[in-house]
């Protein structure tokens, strides 16, 4: 085994360089052709059944509106019934002919089973599962009073998504449907003050990349990596901590429109805003430079707000 490892250590670097030099231009050409093809084809979601978690506000709410405008049927999931009723009524006014709400908590496995069962009982099928439910937190890792305080972040962001996905897979396989996983740019970029949050999103990224291989070709998976979005969850938090919203934040409606377009085109990844894609490339090619920039941002601008006594 050691001999094989030694051989791979010697051969793979030059072979990879040769491959990139000779074949990467052809790969880019193929990607361009596929991109043009995707832009010419857009999925018709009229009367398709779409289940959206975290639909009471933020990205989930506005993605629901985009689907509603195209006549999709919606199953809206979140903990706040009163907010779900408002989103459901707005969705009906925008064009959705059939909307149900299912209050519950994605971190509860029995609730996740209920979400799928009630959707199938009402509509008879499931075409798209939009995994959006999540919580955000900014805190220095060492400032947790009890490390167990971090558990709800993973329970909601990661396990809540995997639970409902597990119960949805048999129905999505029947419909040749789609799973959309809304993760975060922090899954690829280390985000200071959000170590556990970033870990939960990175876990989702790798989970759905693996699941994409396991479920292909029956179920398509789109992974969304948004940057900072102005939502009811993030904006008040930023204003409380720093006195204003984050300068690079994007409006939630614009983000939702971009996500919906990407889903319709059948994208495997959606980076929104699109400049995030180039930051990810920089992270892969020159990780030290990105790490230095983030460290400078943290030490110079963010850390003063989190001084320890």
UniProtKB/TrEMBL annotation:
Record keywords: Lipid biosynthesis, Lipid metabolism, Membrane, NADP, Oxidoreductase, Signal-anchor, Steroid biosynthesis, Transmembrane, Transmembrane helix
Membrane topology type: Single-pass type II membrane protein
A Gene Ontology cellular-component term: cytosol
Example of a GO MF term: oxidoreductase activity
Main location (coarse class): membrane
Membrane spanning residue stretches: 6-30
Coiled-coil zones: none
Record-linked PROSITE patterns: ADH_SHORT (PS00061)
Subcellular location: Membrane
Highest taxon in the source lineage: Eukaryota
SUPFAM superfamilies with a match to the protein in the record: NAD(P)-binding Rossmann-fold domains
Gene Ontology process terms (BP): steroid biosynthetic process
Family: Belongs to the short-chain dehydrogenases/reductases (SDR) family.
Annotated protein name in UniProt: NAD(P)-binding domain superfamily
Organism: Arabidopsis thaliana x Arabidopsis arenosa
């Amino acid at each position: 085994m050691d001999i094989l490892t030694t051989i791979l250590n010697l051969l793979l670097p030059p072979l990879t360089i040769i491959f990139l030099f000779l074949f990467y231009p052809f790969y880019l050409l193929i990607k361009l052709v596929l991109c043009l093809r995707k832009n010419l084809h857009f999925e018709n979601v009229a009367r398709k059944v779409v289940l959206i978690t975290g639909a009471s506000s933020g990205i989930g709410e506005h993605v629901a509106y985009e689907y509603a405008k195209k006549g999709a049927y919606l199953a809206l999931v979140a903990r706040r019934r009163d907010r779900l009723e408002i989103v459901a009524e707005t969705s009906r006014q925008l064009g959705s002919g059939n909307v149900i709400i299912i209050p519950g908590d994605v971190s509860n496995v029995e609730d996740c089973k209920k979400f799928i069962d009630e959707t199938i009982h009402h509509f008879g099928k499931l075409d798209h599962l939009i995994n959006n439910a999540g919580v955000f937190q900014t805190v220095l890792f060492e400032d947790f009073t009890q490390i167990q305080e971090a558990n709800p972040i993973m329970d909601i962001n990661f396990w809540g998504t995997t639970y409902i996905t597990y119960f949805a897979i048999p129905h999505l396989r029947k419909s040749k449907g789609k799973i959309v996983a809304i993760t975060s740019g922090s899954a690829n970029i280390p985000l200071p003050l959000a170590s556990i949050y970033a870990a939960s999103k990175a876990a989702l990224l790798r989970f759905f990349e693996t699941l994409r291989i396991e479920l292909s070709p029956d179920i398509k998976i789109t992974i969304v990596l948004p940057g900072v979005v102005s939502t009811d969850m993030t904006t008040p938090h930023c204003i409380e901590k720093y006195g204003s919203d984050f300068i690079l934040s994007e409006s939630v409606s614009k983000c939702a429109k971009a996500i919906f377009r990407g889903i319709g085109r059948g994208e495997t990844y959606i980076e929104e805003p699109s400049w995030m894609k180039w930051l990810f490339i920089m992270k892969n090619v020159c990780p030290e430079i990105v790490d230095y920039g983030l460290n400078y941002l943290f030490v110079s601008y963010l850390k003063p707000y989190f001084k320890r006594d």
